[in-house]
Amino acid sequence: MTLTVPALRARNARRRRHRPLSLLLAIGFLLAVITAAVLAPLLAPHSPDATSLLNSLAPPGSEGHLLGTDSAGRDVLSRLMHGARLSLLAPLGVVLLSGVLGTAIGLLAARAGGWADAVLSRGMDIVFAFPSLLLAMLVVAVVGPGLTGPICALAVSYTPFVGRLVRSMALQEGVRPYMDGYRVMGFGEVWVTVRHLLPNILPALIAQSALTFAHALMDLAALSYLGLGVRPPDADWGSMLSQSQSAILAGAPWSGLIPGIAILLTVVSVNLLGEHIGGSIGRKGSVKA
Prior knowledge:
Number of domains: 1
CATH class: Mainly Alpha
Structural class: mainly alpha
CATH topology: MetI-like fold
Helix content: over 70%
Order of helices and strands: HHHHHHHHHHH
Radius of gyration: 23 Å
């Protein structure tokens, strides 16, 4: 079906009206999750590791358990709030490491050029072709379960995404007149790159970081689900999903649905925030051009 110009304008206007609401909901949900994670020791109604076989698989709302209990009688809400800490901090570590590595490699490739650019670009292509989750599993097989190995492995896997973006934008910024002006004034390449080029590509890096965070959250949750992530008694949302399999078979799905919904809503909210940032960058770029 072909839309006329007035119909396209009306559809775009509807999207613009609905976008702030979805963005506000995403930001509100992320703020609530972060607050619950930071204040978990104060806000959690029970200890996340306190077991009670008498209250095993209690339904939501029963005996002071707002979201019910799991197969070991542990409060699901308390474990969800405490588990949010590792579920958010681990992807954040991936974002920081991949951001630093990718930015350094991308800037070096774009500014150095020549054989350095070719070597770094081919190296990023090789890492890009290797599945991130498989690399993390190989690292866990070598160093053992835990979050340190998967965080480092995923950071290396996501570095080419950041590096390619930084290289592309650095090449675009490098040919702008203001760059030539600073060179004529006698400023060094390092100073111009750090002081002026990097701030101009920082908004795009923030948008990419949001996407990296969402992918890292899902990958780390998958590793924890497979038993290759956090070690007991620590918990994150992926391990809660893994431990809820028997409860789901016993007809008590809430202990698995709740952390699954938390992962889903967090990923969607982060993606909406990243999409909004990327759209803002695109609109500013079109006006500037």
